[in-house]
Design a protein that fits this description.
nine-stranded mixed sheet; Rossmann fold; GMP Synthetase, Chain A, domain 3; alpha/beta; five-stranded parallel sheet
Length: about 500
């Protein structure tokens, strides 16, 4: 690991050696504030050097870095801070209003919002309030004790079925650390000497894993303050990026760039482009492979599971729509409602485990942790099937499946067709109450001006069985998505199910 390796954000850069020295100072400071083994340091930060510094510092002490989604409201932020029992929160100055309801005992250390973030989000240059990160670091001696066994960040799941849960893993054994290194090399392409680019927010699970591991192994790591499709292309060319992690929404935005813009940039340095976090429509993925070449890699996984399957572009082109076969040390089964294993081609709930992943619990929710396990395997509620060759195909989230007139309908299948309809920019399909069938399909669509419901219906009817064509189509200016590209369907469903007497 070269101390001379660079980490870049905007026009600023820092060597890995300097960043790790600052992390050691932060570790001493956190220890003086009472952070020890198993304790939490919350990070209310956008993509910036202090996110990495504070994360590495927490792990040196055997503690957990707890990223906070800065899109949340003060009540949601306060819930996470209380639930995690965080002793310290490190926050960008412009995000301090989100701490309005934070526990008064919490120590707040403020990071000055840097110019590239202020420009990307149209923010004023906020001044630090209270304890300033730079001044605080300067007062700390470097941590010179042996580091504790490192724990992964405690990521809070998205909370689409209630309050988010913190996934709290035990420290890994040496064998698990070696297995994790091999897995990260396979799914993310992270190996010593890569030139990495991180366009997604570090508070999300996969970008967090990609960013923290790349920060220790890469020859170069570029942090994007905010995803912008043309800027991403420019950064790939300028820094000869070979490894990056994207989500399908980013692919869609990249493909919508004018052809002359797409041709303007040299992308031949790319070797390993990983995507996950949300379903990728087949037409979108095929178009990206045609543009960038067979450098796309996909995995199926979750904060709770690890990454039990993965595939490269060649696998996917041979099996369009697959999310891959088993990774090293993984076990995966498709089970029906009675816990029986489903035969190939028959959808059921996905249960999996990865032997390189240390055991976990949901912080303060051990009963919920036990509820998702069956015979040593974990489920996050996804539905899918294995084909005869052992390739996994996803159908949908179990909670997103619509049962209309006794027929199971998987919205993800319909969305994959709908996103390809001319004029459609974004879409979501979900169930709404129906007095006759129990549920009916509704499509929420963001579309170009002039796109009509009749045209959308005709396009869907040409490719889908009639019962899969949504009975209702709604037009929206924007659909609720988080920065990982995950669609927040709950927000779309809510108004339809209010007063119905059913939990959505």
């Amino acid at each position: 690991m070269s101390d001379a390796a660079l980490i870049i954000s905007g026009d600023r850069q820092v060597t890995r050696g300097a960043l790790m020295e600052r992390a050691r100072r932060a570790a001493s400071g956190f220890a003086a504030l009472g952070v020890g083994v198993g304790d939490c340091v919350a990070l209310l930060l956008r993509n910036d050097f202090p996110f990495l510094e504070a994360s590495y510092a927490a792990t040196m002490l055997g503690g957990y870095a707890v990223p906070v989604n800065w899109h949340w409201k003060p009540d949601e932020v306060a819930y996470l801070l209380r639930d995690s029992d965080a002793r310290v929160v490190v926050a960008h100055a412009d995000l301090l209003p989100l701490l309005a309801e934070a526990p008064p005992s919490l120590t707040v250390i403020t990071v000055r919002t840097p110019p590239e973030l202020a420009a990307a989000y149209g923010l004023p240059m906020s001044e630090p309030a209270g304890e300033d990160w730079e001044a605080w670091l300067a007062r700390q001696p470097a941590w010179d004790r042996l580091p504790q066994p490192a724990r992964e960040s405690m990521i809070y799941t998205s909370g689409t079925t209630g309050r988010p849960k913190g996934v709290r893993r035990m420290p890994p054994t040496p064998a698990q650390m070696e297995g994790t290194a091999r897995n990260r090399a396979q799914i993310y392409g992270i190996r010593p000497g890569i030139r990495g680019l991180l366009p997604g927010p570090l508070y999300h699970s996969a970008p967090n894993s990609f960013g923290l591991r790349s920060g220790t192994l890469a020859e170069l790591l570029v942090l994007m303050p905010r995803f912008d499709p043309e800027q991403l292309l420019a950064l790939i060319e300028r820094h000869r990026i070979d490894t990056t992690f994207l989500v399908p929404t980013m692919f869609v935005r990249l493909l919508r760039l004018p052809e002359e813009v797409r041709r303007r940039y040299d992308l031949t340095s790319l070797r390993h482009v990983t995507h996950a976090a949300a379903p990728c429509p087949p037409e979108v993925k095929r178009a990206m492979i045609e543009w960038w070449g067979p450098v796309l890699h996909e995995f199926y996984g979750a904060t709770d599971l690890g990454a039990p399957t993965a595939c490269d572009s060649h696998d996917w082109l041979a099996k369009p729509g697959t999310v891959g076969r088993l990774t090293e040390g993984a076990v995966l089964k498709i089970l029906d409602a009675e816990g029986r294993e489903c035969p190939p081609g028959v959808p059921g709930e996905i249960y999996a485990s990865c032997d390189y992943m240390p055991d976990f619990t949901y912080h303060k929710r051990d009963a919920e942790r036990r509820a998702v396990e069956r015979d040593g395997l974990i489920t996050v509620g996804d539905v899918g099937y294995l084909d005869e060759d052992g390739y996994l195909f996803l159908c949908d989230r179990k909670r997103d499946m619509v049962i209309s007139g006794g027929v199971n309908i998987y919205p993800a299948e319909i969305e994959a067709v709908l996103i390809g309809v001319e004029g459609v920019l974004d879409c979501a399909v979900f169930g709404i109450p129906d007095p006759e069938y129990g549920e009916a399909l509704c499509a929420a669509v963001r579309a170009l001006p002039g796109t009509t419901e009749a045209a959308i219906r005709a396009a869907l009817q040409a490719k889908l069985a009639n019962f899969k064509v949504p009975r209702r189509i709604e037009f929206h200016e924007e659909l609720p998505r988080d920065d990982s590209g995950k669609l927040l369907k709950r927000k779309l469903r809510e108004r339809h199910w209010q007063g119905i007497g059913r939990t959505i």
